[in-house]
Design a protein that fits this description.
Layout lengths: L1 E9 L2 E7 L4 E5 L6 H11 L15 E9 L6 H11 L8 E9 L4 E5 L2 E3 L1 H8 L3 E4 L1 H6 L3 H12 L1 H27 L3 H21 L5 H13 L1 H17 L1 H17 L7 H26 L1 H25 L3 H19 L1 H47 L6 E13 L2 E10 L7 E2 H4 L2 H19 L3 E5 L7 H14 L4 E5 L3 H4 L4 E9 L4 E8 L1 H13 L5 H15 L2
Helix pairs in contact: 5-14, 6-14, 7-13, 8-12, 9-11, 10-11, 12-13, 14-16, 19-20
Length: 561
Amino acid sequence: MLAYLHVKNIALIEELDIDFNEGLNILTGETGAGKSIILGSIHYVLGAKIKKDFIRTGAKEAFVECVFDIRRLGPEKQEIHRILKENGVADDDESIIMNRKTAQNGRSVFRVNGEVVRQEVIRRLAAYLIDIHSQHEHQSLLSSKKQLQMLDRYIGEELLSIQGQFSDAYKLHRHLLDSINEDLYDDEKRRREIAFLEFEIDEIVKAELTLGEDEENQKIFDRLSHRNKIITVLSNMEGTFYDQPDFSSIVSKYIGELNRVLAYDEELSNFIESLVQVEDILNIIHHDLSNYLDDEESYEEELHNAEERLNTINSLKLKYGDTIEDILTYKNKKEEELARLVHFEENLLKTKKRLKELEEEMKIFAGKLTAIRKKGALKLGANITKALKALNLEHAEFGISVEALDNYTPSGRDHIVFMISTNKGEQKKPLSDVASGGELSRVMLAIKSILSSVDGVDTLVFDEIDSGISGITAQKVAERMKTLSKERQLICITHLPQIAAMSDCHFLIHKETMSDFTVTMMKELNHEESVQELARMLSGAKTTEITVANAIEMKAHATKM
């Protein structure tokens, strides 16, 4: 559930800290007080686009942070852990902390558990944590594509395996079809392409590349191209050791003198051995120095060979890849393309045969998808009908039409249409043709309440779910939301006292005018304050004893639910 929300420098909000609770969290307040800013802040931290005036006037940056308690999630928790691990984010089995910071220049930084992540990571995680319903989603409900997604979500596991098999066949079919279209050009163009591929492949083959040789030749080139500096150092060393006789003669002199006094103290042999080793080392160094300094001819040839090889390799890198491995991979790919073009007619026949096989597979899988969806559509339609009747649409009949398309799509070949009849005796018609704003709100609530039981999302957010309803309908919607909140956390912005009365936690949003600016504030109400807010919502103006009494009665009724 969404346990905590911190908002700073968003629109009229200077800084707010909100601790949400389990059950039904209600947000109320006068029109224009800033209720939509709270919802907008949640949208913002989850990756939504923002307008230029979203950041509070005079502020350098906006910041929002959400803390989700994930302890009571089911299988969704494993998916969350997998996403965190994939992106190198520290894992916590109890909570997830998300935040977003946006500067005045529009640049945003997203973080999860303190780690900077891509916006896409936030959105993937949010899909398992929170489901936000706003006025805009009323319209998305009318989209056939959205309706198909809802039906498939409801069906769940039974559909996944067949959908995966169909998807694999569909993608391969599209790929092969594209490859045929690429190949079906004139013979002259194909011959030019073959000649060009043969030239590229031949150039790489002749180079006889081996992995790592570019690095090895670069080391040789670096060493030999700086040979003059090396020779200077070694020549100076040779002059110091051998052109000045004092150094070596001193070693020889003391070896002789120590030998003459060795008879008086055998321990002097240790010094003699050390000096002999020094003399041997000096001789070895002198020998190696002489060979190195005399190897002029070999040096010139080796430098030339390394330079030529590097030029060849670097020339190929400019054309075919940044590394030798890339170049060889490029060659292999071009060899495959060449083989396909050389054996064009033979491959074309094989591809056409494979396309027919895939079309048959797609037909079978799509048929299975249709059968599963029709079965699921009957069940979902019956459940939505039942839910709508509980929401004061007593004569509503909801159905889902599953019709075949003339062509395949990535989802199969099914066209889904939500159908509804709201009056007794009327035939069901597409939802987009008959539903009013209030009916659409109830349809959405009915669908959300059913889908929430199968997709495991722990937090549902509703903005203006009360659009177009009042009276007994409002009471029915309130009761449905109260029932739903016993299984899920609900956060709801509302203008209706019937819904507000059902709150487990009631927040009041209001504006305060300071000396030179206005801010949006938010306060959690106790029982008495909640009653007063309900009375205000009932009266629309000054509260009276009657409206307060009504508010008390409404709260008492809610506690019995």
